[in-house]
Amino acid sequence: MPVYFVRRVLAAIPVMLVVAIFVFLLLRLTPGDPAAIIAGDMATPAQLERIRDALGLNDPLHIQFLTWIGRLLQGDFGTSLISNKPVLELVEDRMWPTIWIALITITLSVIVAVPMGVLAAWRHRTWVDHIVMTFSVLGFSIPVFVIGYLLIKLFAIDLRWVPVQGYKAPSADIGGFAIRAVLPALTLASIYIALIARMTRASLLDVLNEDYVRTARAKGLAERRVLFRHALRNAAVPVMTVIGTGFALLISGVVVTESVFNIPGLGRLTVDSIFARDYPVIQALILLTSGIYVAVNLLIDLSYSLLDPRIRY
Amino acid sequence: MADSTPLRAALRLPTAKLAGLGLGFAPLIAAIVLLLIVLAAVFAPYIVPHDPIAQNPVLRLKPPSADFPLGTDAYGRDLLSRVVYGARISLTIGIGVTVMAVVLGLFIGLVSGFFRTADAIVMRIMDGLMAMPSVLLAIAIVSLFGASIWTVMAAITIPEIPRVVRLVRSIVLSAREEPYVEAALSLGTSMPRILWRHLMPNTFAPLTVQATYVCASAILTEAILSFLGAGVSTETPTWGNIMAEARIYFQLKPSLILWPGLALSLCILSINLLGDAARDILDPRMGKREG
Amino acid sequence: ETITAVMHSGLRVLDPVMTTAHITRDNAFMIFDTLTAMNSDFEVTPQMASFEVSDDGLTYTFTLRDGLKWHDGGEVTPADCIASIKRWMVRDGGGQMIADRMESLEATGDKSFALKLKEPFPYTLQAMSKPSGLALFMMPERIASTPADTAITEYIGSGPFKFVPDEFQPGVKVVYEKNEDYVPAEGPQSWFSGAKDVKVDRVEWVTMPDAQTSINALMNGEIDYMEAVPVDLLPLLQGVDTVKTDVLAKLGSVTIGRMNFLYPPFDNPKIRKAALMALSQEDVLTALIGNPEYFQVCGAIFGCGTPLEFADGSETLTSGGDIEGAKALLEEAGYDGTPVVLMQPTDVVTLAAQPVVAAQALRAAGFVVDMQPMDWQTLVTRRASQAKPSEGGWNLFFTNWIVPEVSNPLANIMLNGRGDSAWFGWPNDPEIEGLLGEYASAADLDTQKSVAEKIQAHVMENVNYIHLGQYNSPSAWNAALTGVADAPFPVFWGVGKSAD
Amino acid sequence: MMAEVLNVENLRVAIDSPGGAEVVRGISLTINEGETVCLVGESGSGKSVTSLATMGLLPKGSLKPVGGTIRLEGEDLLSCSAARLRDLRATRMSMIFQEPMTALNPVMKVGDQITEVLQAHTKLSNSACHAKVLEMMEQVGLPDVTRIVSSYPHQLSGGQRQRIMIAMALVLDPKLLIADEPTTALDVTTQKQILFLIKELQKRHGTAVLFITHDMGVVSEIADRVYVMNRGDLVETAPIDTLLRHPKEEYTRKLLSAVPSLTPRAARPVSSERTVLQVTELVKRYGGGGFLARAPETLAANDVNFTLKAGRTLGIVGESGSGKSTVARCVMRLIDPSAGGIRIAGHDIATLSRNGMKPYRRKLQMVFQDPYRSLNPRITVAESIMEGPVNYGTPRAEARARAEELLELVGLPASAAARYPHQFSGGQRQRIAIARALAMEPDLLVADEAVSALDVSVQAQVLDLFAEVQERMGIAILFITHDLRVAAQICDDVAVMRRGEVVEIGDTATVLGNPRHEYTRALLEAAPGRHWDFAAFAPVSAA
Ligand SMILES: Nc1ncnc2c1ncn2[C@@H]1O[C@H](COP(=O)(O)OP(=O)(O)OP(=O)(O)O)[C@@H](O)[C@H]1O
Ligand SMILES: Nc1ncnc2c1ncn2[C@@H]1O[C@H](COP(=O)(O)OP(=O)(O)OP(=O)(O)O)[C@@H](O)[C@H]1O
Ligand SMILES: [Mg+2]
Ligand SMILES: [Mg+2]
């Protein structure tokens, strides 16, 4: 296990290097110039040039890249070109809202989606199955922002059950946090629920054909026990996998959700930074999100051995 | 092992499959809806009442009328015409992305599934691409090359490729252990030919399913890009940018977002339902499921 | 008491000398104070200092009023002010004009200092008091001695509010506390002059990327103030009795189009004129604003409602465009179908409509238009490029200014005609440079006015830029707020929050 | 007469769709307390369906009983409720399934899987449950029960897993035990133990056993009475002795005479002295190495030597995992041998590269075990057969004509060429695979368990085909099997493998008729029904 873990962590290094090079090149080739946004509308060409020089943007690309990587290895992510704040500090501020919302979303999704998928598989090709599947496809087919708006209109404006927007840290005010996290989490969960429910159903359908399910039935076990005790755990590995890969979708969804619900999270920070060409911030963020993605999937891989004793590392 | 084998054989027959499926009416309805949308897109110039980009400020944000069956948008353009034309671009994006992602993904996946040496490098790159948040990547690419429908398509395609590659590769990895591949090997069949004739066809069924997801998610991603201000020009109506432009009128004139949204949802719903049906029909394991 | 306000955009750059970005300026007015200030009659009034101009117009003496303290407790001294002025002069256009004519800038006592010029420059006080562009803010000497190209890292001012660095989240939230030591100036509050009387303990600016979310939050009482309400969304707030809406920046803004003078087709004045003739202010403003109550067809490049309001040469713009005339002129000019590369920002709501409307009008007049959508950041980078339009350059883009930024010929950066060092588009226009020189040395208002009228006519004829009319953005606030005042941009002194 | 436990009367099961065909057409059978009844018949004849119908486990939505009754101690199972059926399962009737590898839940400890039965049907306390489980596991002869009780299935051998299944089925002392091919997946020695165990337990508990198999050897060892099924119909029933000696029906006779004899066939004259294949000191190791992780190493073939002459058949026998396939795959160069030489007509091919192999490929052909997976389902039969020759430059038209000839040679109509593999039965597919191999006109044919997946009657046809082809073309055959009966009938020489080593090699008559190595003897001992010569309807004459 530890050997496997080390190996997986080492294997993540080339992946992150690919990400780093890709992001760096993409950004530097992209038109857009942080100097221009810093200087504002009335800047003259000469002023722009001076700011560029001061920011080191006129150095050759490979020098910029090596400088960046060199600093990264020392744990220095640089400072934001625009706001002059250390990138780490910026990211730290903005990380928690996103992480919290993501966690709630995943929990919520799993709680809702897994039983949905089980039900659909159990009642395969009946109206129950069709309804569950249609609903989950619907979750897929409405753009996130529309779902967000609909939820706001219904629950915040018409019913006034929850605030329209905002974020409170759970450490500061757990109730305030929860009440504000509901709608964004629901919005995000719509895709995720769809994804997980479908995978649960498909995977369970496979498992239900396995001999050991027949054995379980031959033992005279109650149907619920057959489904949840025998079938579900065997179906869990692909479901976990989709939770992991779906994480990428979640991150994309976060960008929109954070805008709609005004949550000061990583998604918005990234979009803002991209539009402002705040290179150090974008680089750090994409590395970070990629790193989170890789880490989540590593954890999920490791969790396989908990779910399935045959998988040993 | 030999249990119910004649049955399994019978189920390979497509007709038998269709007959025994009992999928309900959903796929049929989905197919009809999709066909209607495609027809509308193809014949858009003949069926829309107005030029979708002709503005008329005086008539902005008007409710439905005889002349403008769905009303007008903030530039006084006819919403119906825009939604119908939007089908053209949105479908082009969906289909274009799907074709590009599938063709490239298939090629890369086949090669890396079969050649161990290529595999390590290719898969690291694919993992890297997959780890990057796709919407953010897309925004960056769109900024880089300007927001035309081609760059939007490219931007959506790139993050989809690794997913197709992974799928194809996993199929190749398991299919290359099949005895018939070994048989081909012992018949002296060359590597490329084994890939082409014996391995690639295995990927078709799962790829069809995957393709419907890619198609649907491309159309949605375009909408998100428009929402974030990185979409195509408003002169090229897409369901995504019509909705994105209309989003501030969500409470005042919900119909502006409703109609393109409805078209989009129906389209994606249909594509997904067809994809599900495709899986049920094409999945060779369906035989096992019965037995 | 806390006021939570949603401003028009997120604050990221804090150094007011680095950028002309409005939000940076708004922030600076909270934490820094100005030497002199402009009131709603465009008059220069004392703020931190009273001033005196010698009869020959060469010496300006400033005397600091009593009780001025930096937020860190230090006294405000002439040395601080001199350093601040010098840093500003490096960056600001008006400041540079003063610097060009400056003999000396020296302290003359504990509380006073003097600016000596080599030749009279009547615009001096206006430049030093203008609220926008790069406004002149006072900082302690140790901060103001930062080179003008390097951003400051400490935000200590002497203004009515203190910046709370720990709670600052770039692009998301800025927090200000009342400066308890602030001694307001004399006189009634008018724009940026007079007493800045803080009535609340705290002001928080939050950024909301989605206008609808802000409106909903305002209606639900989650925020107190929203700077810019899209006009189309006003009906949502009307009839909500906990919310008040009004136009606070009465002068409003202008929207303009700017051409690239370096490349065809707009290197040809006739073709520029044809483009101008094709455009209609009303069409543009309707698409942009919608409700006619909130826009004004206005032919005056210095703004309607300003002292220099002239409408010469603007007939086609204000009367719905002259497509036929444009066609004829285009033909006469021998337009060869060179496509007009029109940059369209897709992520800025207030700039998305102009290119779309303009493209339709230009096409109607016979232009070939290549509208290229891009994000605003790409646009601001690209507009700085002097490359050919087909190779990454451009022909036409649009932007907005608040009226005080264009109302004075010397502050209006688009009038600069010095070729490569002019504003983007780089017109080489000796004629207008001459007129601006004339204006700068004009001794009295009447002379200024007659020169301004000539400038107006010249700009319309030569099409230095296309003035597309004036509009107002309404603001909205919680009805519990008191003292919300008219100003070109929001000020939070004088604003209170009633208990209920 | 003892009490009747199961009584099936005129049972009919049909495919659950409008107008669905009947797959079981009116069968009746009875089993008494303490009796073992065997149900035999070729693949697809409806044996499993009958047993599943009894358990109420017919796959929902695809099969349903349409007539008849099933009575368990008088209670009608077809008309009772789902809940009642659940109660009956495991308490009054139990079932053991064919595949011990897949019939247990892989993510649950085996002890828990047995305990579950007790929890579902009794009110025993936890500790009582536990005690009972251990006791049962001991009864089925599992060693070291305290360890095994908390093991997962994958940590047990096939035989151990099947014992767990049996423990699970018998823990509540059911009246009826249905065993559906419970030993097919096990090697002969394990099979023997399991059969013995079931017999033991049956004696002790007086259980009625319905034993489903197509292995007549097994039948001859355990059955009291036999029912023979064919295509959904009941053909014949009789006490075992009567059936074996005097089968009444033609179908039964056919079935019995298709069972190959364990007595080696008469030696054939050596027709050619040409050596086709020579394997010297062949070694194959799997695993080992690996980046940071030490993969465990398996020595799958160790110092294997043999030669094979043209026109001869060499059999390799041995129980599962003994390395038979490994040798075959090395010879075919589908895997790289770790050491040793493989000479084809005098040329060493052991270390040739993929390209270097190309000229030799056509001389070596292989027929794989699984007739369902060794043909690409998406390619027509003709295309599959033509693939090899076309690779070596034969014009398509010629290759096609040859393919049709070959199909006729293997006993299929030429018209079969245009069809797809799924349109053929297992036996037919295996013949197509043989035709494909023959199309290359190889010198050596490697057949790895080429007939193990086929039922006896089809198996007999395919074996005949091998013999015929060899006679006609003089091909050398390396024939791999674990079925000693098959080896006895087809091989000239036999090599016996155990744990990667050849323990005995020689001509068939000697090795099987007069084994010298104790392992060979043990293998022969374990072969079920070795005292009966089925084809002769008489015991093996004391030779
Ligand atoms: N789920 C099913 N749906 C439709 N037909 C089925 C199903 N299961 C089995 N059959 C058919 O019923 C017939 C009897 O099958 P069954 O499994 O009982 O055969 P068997 O005698 O057990 O064969 P084997 O020896 O191969 O196990 C076969 O023709 C088979 O194709
Ligand atoms: N690819 C592989 N990697 C590692 N070990 C393997 C591999 N293939 C086979 N083995 C091991 O090598 C040994 C011999 O396997 P082989 O397949 O040759 O046996 P066999 O005699 O053909 O058995 P069977 O009768 O079950 O087919 C077994 O212990 C098996 O587990
Ligand atoms: Mg069976
Ligand atoms: Mg084998």
TrEMBL record, chain A:
<keyword id="KW-0813">Transport</keyword>
<feature type="transmembrane region" description="Helical">
    <location>
        <begin position="99"/>
        <end position="122"/>
    </location>
</feature>
<feature type="domain" description="ABC transmembrane type-1">
    <location>
        <begin position="95"/>
        <end position="300"/>
    </location>
</feature>
<protein>
    <submittedName>
        <fullName>ABC transporter permease</fullName>
    </submittedName>
</protein>
<dbReference type="InterPro" id="IPR045621">
    <property type="entry name" value="BPD_transp_1_N"/>
</dbReference>
<feature type="transmembrane region" description="Helical">
    <location>
        <begin position="281"/>
        <end position="307"/>
    </location>
</feature>
<dbReference type="InterPro" id="IPR000515">
    <property type="entry name" value="MetI-like"/>
</dbReference>
<keyword id="KW-0614">Plasmid</keyword>
<feature type="transmembrane region" description="Helical">
    <location>
        <begin position="134"/>
        <end position="157"/>
    </location>
</feature>
<feature type="transmembrane region" description="Helical">
    <location>
        <begin position="9"/>
        <end position="27"/>
    </location>
</feature>
<comment type="similarity">
    <text>Belongs to the binding-protein-dependent transport system permease family.</text>
</comment>
<dbReference type="GO" id="GO:0055085">
    <property type="term" value="P:transmembrane transport"/>
</dbReference>
<keyword id="KW-1133">Transmembrane helix</keyword>
<keyword id="KW-0812">Transmembrane</keyword>
<dbReference type="Pfam" id="PF00528">
    <property type="entry name" value="BPD_transp_1"/>
</dbReference>
TrEMBL record, chain B:
<dbReference type="GO" id="GO:0005886">
    <property type="term" value="C:plasma membrane"/>
</dbReference>
<dbReference type="InterPro" id="IPR000515">
    <property type="entry name" value="MetI-like"/>
</dbReference>
<dbReference type="InterPro" id="IPR050366">
    <property type="entry name" value="BP-dependent_transpt_permease"/>
</dbReference>
<feature type="domain" description="ABC transmembrane type-1">
    <location>
        <begin position="87"/>
        <end position="275"/>
    </location>
</feature>
<keyword id="KW-0813">Transport</keyword>
<dbReference type="InterPro" id="IPR035906">
    <property type="entry name" value="MetI-like_sf"/>
</dbReference>
<dbReference type="GO" id="GO:0055085">
    <property type="term" value="P:transmembrane transport"/>
</dbReference>
<feature type="transmembrane region" description="Helical">
    <location>
        <begin position="256"/>
        <end position="275"/>
    </location>
</feature>
<keyword id="KW-0614">Plasmid</keyword>
<protein>
    <submittedName>
        <fullName>ABC transporter permease</fullName>
    </submittedName>
</protein>
<feature type="transmembrane region" description="Helical">
    <location>
        <begin position="135"/>
        <end position="158"/>
    </location>
</feature>
<feature type="transmembrane region" description="Helical">
    <location>
        <begin position="89"/>
        <end position="115"/>
    </location>
</feature>
<dbReference type="Pfam" id="PF00528">
    <property type="entry name" value="BPD_transp_1"/>
</dbReference>
<dbReference type="Pfam" id="PF12911">
    <property type="entry name" value="OppC_N"/>
</dbReference>
<keyword id="KW-0472">Membrane</keyword>
TrEMBL record, chain D:
<comment type="similarity">
    <text>Belongs to the ABC transporter superfamily.</text>
</comment>
<dbReference type="InterPro" id="IPR050388">
    <property type="entry name" value="ABC_Ni/Peptide_Import"/>
</dbReference>
<keyword id="KW-1003">Cell membrane</keyword>
<feature type="domain" description="ABC transporter">
    <location>
        <begin position="6"/>
        <end position="256"/>
    </location>
</feature>
<dbReference type="InterPro" id="IPR027417">
    <property type="entry name" value="P-loop_NTPase"/>
</dbReference>
<dbReference type="GO" id="GO:0005886">
    <property type="term" value="C:plasma membrane"/>
</dbReference>
<dbReference type="GO" id="GO:0015833">
    <property type="term" value="P:peptide transport"/>
</dbReference>
<dbReference type="Pfam" id="PF00005">
    <property type="entry name" value="ABC_tran"/>
</dbReference>
<protein>
    <submittedName>
        <fullName>ABC transporter ATP-binding protein</fullName>
    </submittedName>
</protein>
<dbReference type="Pfam" id="PF08352">
    <property type="entry name" value="oligo_HPY"/>
</dbReference>
<dbReference type="InterPro" id="IPR003593">
    <property type="entry name" value="AAA+_ATPase"/>
</dbReference>
<keyword id="KW-0472">Membrane</keyword>
<dbReference type="GO" id="GO:0055085">
    <property type="term" value="P:transmembrane transport"/>
</dbReference>
<keyword id="KW-0547">Nucleotide-binding</keyword>
<dbReference type="InterPro" id="IPR003439">
    <property type="entry name" value="ABC_transporter-like_ATP-bd"/>
</dbReference>
